[in-house]
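Onboarding guide, step 5: your first structure request.
Type a short instruction followed by the sequence, for example:

Predict the 3D structure of this protein.
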Amino acid sequence: MDLKAETKDEAVNEMLDLIKDEGVSLDYETVLRSIREREEVEDTAYGHGFAFPHARTDAVNEMYILVGVSKKGLQGKTIDDIPVHVICLLLTPSTIAKLYLQTLSGLATFGRMENMLEKILKIENKRDFIKLVSDTNVTVDKELMVKDVMRHKVASVTPDNTLKDVANIMFRYRLSALAVVDDNNKLLGVINDRDLIKAALPDYKSLISNLNYSLDVEPFEELLKKEDKIKVSQLFREDYEVTSPETRIVEVAAMMIFKDISRVFVTSGDNLVGVLLRKDIVNMIIRG
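The system replies with C-alpha cells like these:
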C-alpha cells in the first residue's frame, strides 16, 4: 500500500519480492524479462494514475495478480500527465489468454471509475483496498466481449467541421478514419483518408481508364485552396458497421474478416461509446 519505488521498473521488482516473501518458487529472471519485453513494445501506463504491466509466460503455471500503490507517484511520462500511483501487475501462463484479457479489462474498468484514484490514495491497509474492489461489483465475464478490447476514446468530428479539421486530427493522432457525430454524440457516419483523396480526385475513374487523361489544374493544389470551405457533411459516408459493448469478440472478428473491414464502431443506443479496430484484436489478443 506504500511502494518505495521511484519508477515503474523498480515498482515491478518490489512487487515481485512480495511473491518471493510468500515462498512461491518461480523463475523470476524469466518473468522480469517478459515484463520488460512487453514494456518495450508499448508502455503499459494506462492513464487515470494506473499502469498494467503484464507478462504471458511459461514461467508461471497459474495467474498472479499483484497490486501496488505509490502514494507519491512514480516518475515517467503518462498519456494524461497524471503520475502512475497504482500498479496492477499480471503474470499469466501462455495457455489462459482469455482469462488474462478479461481480468485486465476488469481492472481497467475499475481504474476508469470516477474518483477511484483519490479513493485508493486514502486507503491505508490491504483489507480496505480489497473491499473497495469488491464494492465496485466489477465482474469478469465468461466470454471475451467487445467492451474488453474496444477503445473508449474515439476521435470524432461533426458535419460542420472542415476538411482541414479532419486532416489535422488524422495527422495528429495518426488515424486513417474518424467517426462523425452530432452535438449529442449520436453516430452519424464515418470519414476516412480515402474520402479526402476522392475530394481531390472526383474523376479518378477517368484517370485509371486513361493514364494520358489531361488535367487542366493540379487537383491537390485546388483542394488545398478549398480545405477551409469543404465541410464534413459533403464527404462523410453512412456505410459503417456497428456493434454493442456486450457482443462477443469472436462474432465481430468473424464479421470483420467476412466484410474485410478494419474498424467497427461501438454504440449504446445511438450514441458512440467506442471503436473496435482489427489491429487491436491482433495487438491485444494475439500479441498480448
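Each response can be followed by summary notes, for example: The radius of gyration is 23 Å.
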